[in-house]
Amino acid sequence: MNTPEDQMLLAGKISGVYGIKGWVKLQIFTDPPENFFAFTSHLIKRRRNAEPIELADGRIQGKAWVARVVGVDNRTDAELLKGTEIWVPRSELPVLDSDEYYWHQLQGLQVWSEHEGQKLLLGEIDHLLETGANDVLVLRPCKGSADERERLIPYLPDTVVLSVELENGTMTVDWHPED
């Protein structure tokens, strides 16, 4: 079955196998990782097709997450899943407060600088980095941006990030264009 990516989110990846009974190692992209197992449906994506899988008995094992895939009962079958992406429906994401956003909602927003009375388009959010202290927006140049520079801007609501308008596809920041 083809799955429109605008309705699905990449939540993890099968990174390897664990043991001889068909368990797989997972690289989980949800925060916190335990949330990965709260989704009621998981799809693995192979080429352009997605197929449902059922995960059972997910747990932390040392520093890695492992899970049993229902119907996969040996290491050989588990090896066939290595490298596949695991997608979940966006509709199953918990509703956030009005001032909170999922990373996927911020990607693609145009970022406008309001600094010392000037308003300039700095670029478009390509992705975010988790640094420990705070998340960082990675901007790439886009049509109409002030220049062709890639920028890193800390995601600090109320300090650097002044507003997010998802419906307009924009974010306004207090950031000097030369930084």
Automatic annotation (TrEMBL):
Organism lineage string: Bacteria, Pseudomonadati, Pseudomonadota, Gammaproteobacteria, Cellvibrionales
- Please report the stretch or stretches of sequence annotated as the RimM N-terminal domain: 11-91
The reply on keyword Nuclease is no
Pfam families named among the record's database cross-references: PRC_RimM, RimM
* UniProt entry keywords in alphabetical sequence: Chaperone, Cytoplasm, Ribosome biogenesis, rRNA processing
In terms of NCBIfam families, this protein maps to:
16S_RimM
Q: Where is the Ribosome maturation factor RimM PRC barrel domain?
A: 103-176
- Functional note: An accessory protein needed during the final step in the assembly of 30S ribosomal subunit, possibly for assembly of the head region. Essential for efficient processing of 16S rRNA. May be needed both before and after RbfA during the maturation of 16S rRNA. It has affinity for free ribosomal 30S subunits but not for 70S ribosomes.
What's the protein called, per UniProt?
Ribosome maturation factor RimM
Q: Which compartment or compartments is the protein found in?
A: Cytoplasm
